Amino acid sequence: MADPQTPAINFGNALARSVFLARRLKNIWNAQEMVGLLLPPSVGGALANYAAMLCGKVPVNLNYTVSEQTLASCVEQCGIKTVLTSRAFLEKVKLNVPGEVVYLEDVAANPKRREKLRAFLFVRFLPTASLEKSLRTDPIQNPRSKIQNDLDSLATVIFSSGSTGEPKGVMLSHYNIASNIDQLDQVFHLTTRDRFLGILPFFHSFGFTAALCLPAQLGVGVVFHVNPLDARTIGPLVRDYAITFLLTTPTFLQLYLRACAPEQFGSLRVVMTGAEKLPDRLAIAFEEQFGIRPLEGYGCTECAPAVAVNAPDFRSAGFHQVGAKRGKIGQALPGVSVRIVDVTSGEPVPLGQSGLLLVRGPNVMRGYLGKPEKTAEVLREGWYTTGDVATLDEDGFLQITDRLSRFSKIGGEMVPHIKVEEKLHECAGATEQTFVVTSVADEKKGERLVVLHKLADDKLRECLEKFGVCELPNLWKPKADAFVRVENFPLLGTGKLDLRKVKELAGQLAKTSDGHN
């Protein structure tokens, strides 16, 4: 593993450093079940997480892009007493961290020769069970499990992104995460020659599973970088370390499309996107520039997170198996069952018909931390209710058609935001995210659509001329005065649209517009 500030280290070195940190931290973490980490995706952040697991603790990676109020709520929900962070990083994010703050620089400072030798000897000669036992001294390890290293014990708590509401603590077990890693391995046949680019933060479920835990479990290389928006650094990192797997989001792909050279991405064999829909226009533009087509996957924090992926086609003499379809999120991972049911009745619907997507598998969470009622709402008889509306075709490929939270009820009819967005992008010929559809309250029809956009006035007029004569129902077409120009769309730290802030911003702008009128 490596990052721009840390030269590459091998797995033996990484384990020895993790043991060294664990030995220094175990007294600080004494009698604590969950420990907070406020660190970016980096070698230091990864080693700190490994040290916590070696000590038998549950690492909770805190989101450094949220408000201080939300951060304090997460710390309180988990009962966290200490937060491990970095002085240099804290100066950048400028957050007041609740609880006792411990600095990684202080913990790792001035390593003594005997400490380094002991860590080396522990790694080289101690059996795994003895190594773990030597790092766990306090009597309170994990009251949820009789055996601390039981796969069903809690591995981490990841707070949902909160794009449409307040974040909830998702409890993921070691079994959930290890299963998801094995599922991804069975699809992509990973080897020790593969290298991942770790740009997703560890408080993001895919960052925790694929960038932090997967390399340690499968022996895959990983190169971290703290800022996924820093395309001018990411291009050289991919080239210099011969990265083969790029895990990212469509929002970040747009930046790489503008700032990275084709030869910098020459080593990539898989570009996997998630967190939001991959527009076909963006996938085509990326493939034209870099010669590799991004594959869309689908997941939820509650599923550790991967549920379905597109994959490269399989070819051999006399055989061809399709691994990906355009516009689809792929097939369910091995061991994952999916079901499409009627939104109202809950009964299964025929192939090709849209309905609510349910998921069951070994990667489905244990539940929401301290929220049994919320857990019962989404987990029923082992099936997790995703909240997404999808279709399933005869080859087992899923397609997300919308999200229940992204509908507006206008004049008694349900209007899907995503379909309106897609048509607007098509009319504008835009490859980047240029429109975001949301809604505000309306006295006459209950709700009305508002569209945030980034187009210049003349470009918007051209787009609206085409949009006005498209095949969408008239009720789905926002009026010209419902379009509001913004410089940037509100984003979460993961690069995903912050739909809650989008709605708040639209409400403020709509009131201002109404006042001017």
Structure description:
It is built from 16 helices and 26 strands. With 517 residues, the protein is an alpha/beta fold. Among the domains are: 11-224, Rossmann fold, CATH 3.40.50; 411-516, ANL, C-terminal domain (GMP Synthetase, Chain A, domain 3). The strands form 6 sheets. Strands 7, 8, 9, 10, 11, 12, 15, 16, 17, 19, 20 and 21 form a 12-stranded mixed beta sheet that branches. Residues 140-148 have low confidence and may be disordered.
Ranges with pLDDT <50 over ≥5 residues? 140-148
- Please indicate the percent range of residues in DSSP E strands (runs of 2 or more): 15-25%
Looking at the structure, what is the overall shape?
Answer: globular
Which CATH class of the domain at 11-224? Alpha Beta
Query: What structural class is derived from the secondary structure elements?
Result: alpha/beta
CATH topology assignment of the domain at 11-224: Rossmann fold
Alpha-carbon Rg, integer: 24 Å
Distance between the termini: 58 Å
Report mean pLDDT, rounded to a whole number: 89
Helix content: 25-40%
CATH superfamily placement of the domain at 11-224 = ANL, N-terminal domain
| Number of strand segments | 26
Continuous helix count = 16
- Overall CATH architecture of the domain at 11-224: 3-Layer(aba) Sandwich
Largest sheet: 12 strands, mixed
Structure in a nutshell:
Strands 7, 8, 9, 10, 11, 12, 15, 16, 17, 19, 20 and 21 form a 12-stranded mixed sheet that branches. Strands 2-1-3-4 form a 4-stranded parallel sheet. It has a 3-stranded antiparallel sheet with strand order 5-6-18. Helices cover 35% and strands 23% of the residues. It has 16 helices and 26 strands.
